[in-house]
Design a protein that fits this description.
8 helices; mainly alpha; flat
């Protein structure tokens, strides 16, 4: 994890970490809600489906007008780009859970909150980590695009090859950290 912490000190990686973190948290919460509660699903699933089909680069000018050219707009672009995909993925995973498990938990007197934390969450966490790993490529694309468009000036010493190499090292560190986290989560689930 030391290698990952060293990479996150770079401002681009901080933006990426914020965007991916917000997307992951919102994807988990909203995905579980959409998957568990039919009323929430019937109300909000069409909106999430439409948002997931809009190319984030198409709304980039609107984001820049609303949020400016600063840090917030770059994080918002990442969130708008990957959160709807993660939400739909989590919703699908929750809907794939055996209904018998949920009915048994309800029969034993579990509240919706207890079912979410003790039945649903342990089963969707490995899929969340997979969805996060799959979304990292798109998150990098959105970050680089926003930074390239919003760049005020290019320093003469900036080398594109060095920038890309730094991004590749950082992405490799993120992938290794996520793999270790997934293995630990699966190990803890089955213990």
């Amino acid at each position: 994890v030391g290698e990952l912490e060293a990479c996150v000190q770079h401002s681009s990686l901080q933006r990426l970490a914020w965007g991916v973190g917000i997307s992951t948290a919102s994807g988990l919460v909203f995905g579980m809600m959409l998957g568990m509660f039919p009323l929430v699903r019937s109300t909000f699933a069409p909106t999430v489906a439409v948002l997931s089909l809009i190319p984030p680069m198409a709304v980039l000018p609107i984001i820049f007008v609303m949020c400016g050219l600063g840090e917030v707009s770059k994080v918002v672009l990442i969130v708008l780009g990957i959160a709807p995909v993660i939400i739909r993925d989590m919703q699908g995973r929750v809907l794939d859970l055996p209904r018998e498990q949920l009915i048994k938990a309800q029969s034993l007197g579990a509240s919706s909150w207890q079912i979410a934390l003790r039945v649903v969450l342990p089963q969707v966490l490995p899929r969340l980590l997979d969805a996060l790993r799959l979304s990292l490529g798109a998150a990098w694309l959105f970050l680089i695009s926003a930074e390239a468009i919003a760049a005020e000036e290019v320093e003469p010493g900036d080398d594109v090859a060095q920038f890309i190499a730094r991004i590749e090292r950082s992405e490799a560190a993120f992938q290794r950290a996520l793999s270790r986290t997934k293995v630990a989560a699966i190990r803890n689930f089955y213990e």
